[in-house]
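Page 42, continued from yesterday. The earlier attempt failed because a stray header line got pasted into the input along with the sequence. Redoing it now with the clean sequence only.
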Amino acid sequence: MTDEQSKKGVVIVGYQGIGKSSCAGTAGCIDLESSNFIVNGERYDDWYINYCNIAESLASQGYVVFTSSHQVVRDELAKRDGLRVVIVTPSASLRDSWINRLLDRYKRTCSEKDRRALLNALDRYKDNVRELAEDSRFEVIVITDMNYDMMNVVREVVSS
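This time it went through. Structure tokens are written below.
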């Protein structure tokens, strides 16, 4: 990315397994991990407000900030005037491949975060991705092929 492009901060709301963590630390990208807002196995009722405050602050400094796709996060981000938010989600047609991706990730990491992501996708994949794709408050990019490069998606977002 050019210097001019990297000054355009943006929040990318990404579905689980989209590549948020893989892009973190490269080309001004930050993965704002929502599982860090779990304390003793629970989240405070208003956790998403501080989470979105941090995302907005980082984006205003020119970073590409990846956030979770939780409904409360999207609702809070929608209240932020002047904040550019783009949703990146896989298509409903990728369900089986996406679940395999999340299963492989969980087998590699054995993390609680990745287990929860897998279980959520097994239970609600089509509903989740439909809700994201139809969220008209934001720009939406739908991934239709498993052979994509998230950094190319980031470059496209930043340059537009």
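Notes: The chain has one domain: 3-94+128-159.
Reminder to self: strip header lines before submitting.
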